[in-house]
Write a structure and sequence with these properties.
With about 200 residues, the chain is an alpha+beta fold. It folds into 2 domains: about 60 residues; about 100 residues, OB fold (Dihydrolipoamide Acetyltransferase, E2P), CATH 2.40.50. It is built from 3 helices and 6 strands. Strands 1-5-6-4-3-2 form a 6-stranded mixed β-sheet, with no helix packed on it. The chain is elongated.
Length: about 200
């Protein structure tokens, strides 16, 4: 006597497989979006017309200003230095140093802080720099914010590596492949389990 295929378990497995395939397709769409964004940034970096900084407006307006030239008058520094791993203009490994800048004559809680990447050094010790005029490139910062990569550097630091939109991660193809692999694996395991049950 042949055992019937369990309906409820089959529905659950097929729903899970369909969800994983949908996630894989979504990642392929995200890959195309990221490629278009990188191409947009590549065109922006060759645009010589500067934009205002710090940026205000919608996310779309901010995205359109990324990798463009700009400048800011840092009247005073805000908060502590953040030193993160980075490269110099000639490719040496070390640290880049980031600080918040006040751009109005008095500090208030409603002030927008303009983040500046002052330059590069071999060690993580920040410079003794309290502000001044900075020009450079607008690039993404952490948590959806942006920063101005100083070019030329300030505070006695060495030159930052030039921003390159191609450095932005685009791992969506790998993520899509993982989801498709998970879907196929789940389907194979379930088919093998059904065949074993039917014996």
């Amino acid at each position: 006597m042949t055992r019937r295929v369990p309906i409820f378990a089959t529905i659950i497995v097929l729903a899970a497989v369909a969800t994983m395939i949908a996630l894989g397709v979504w990642q392929l769409g995200r890959m195309a979006e990221k490629e278009a964004l990188i191409a947009q940034y590549g065109a922006a970096i060759s645009n010589a017309d500067p934009v205002a900084f710090p940026l205000t407006g919608s996310k779309t307006e901010i995205d359109s200003a990324l990798y463009r030239r700009s400048a800011v008058n840092c009247l005073f520094t805000v908060g502590d230095w953040r030193s993160i791993s980075g490269r110099s203009q000639n490719g040496r490994s070390g640290f880049v140093h980031i600080i918040g800048c006040g751009t109005t004559t008095a500090s208030t809680e409603t002030d927008e802080v303009a983040f500046v990447q002052a330059g590069w050094s071999r060690d993580a010790v920040p410079p003794q720099w309290n502000g001044g005029s900075v020009s450079g490139w607008i690039v993404p910062n952490r948590e959806g914010d942006v920063r101005l990569v100083a070019d030329p550097p300030v505070g006695g630091l060495e030159a930052n590596a030039a921003p390159d939109p191609a450095d932005l991660p685009n791992n969506h193809l790998a993520y899509a492949g993982q989801w498709f692999f998970f879907a196929l694996t789940a389907l194979i395991i379930y088919v093998l389990a059904i065949r074993r049950r039917a014996r």
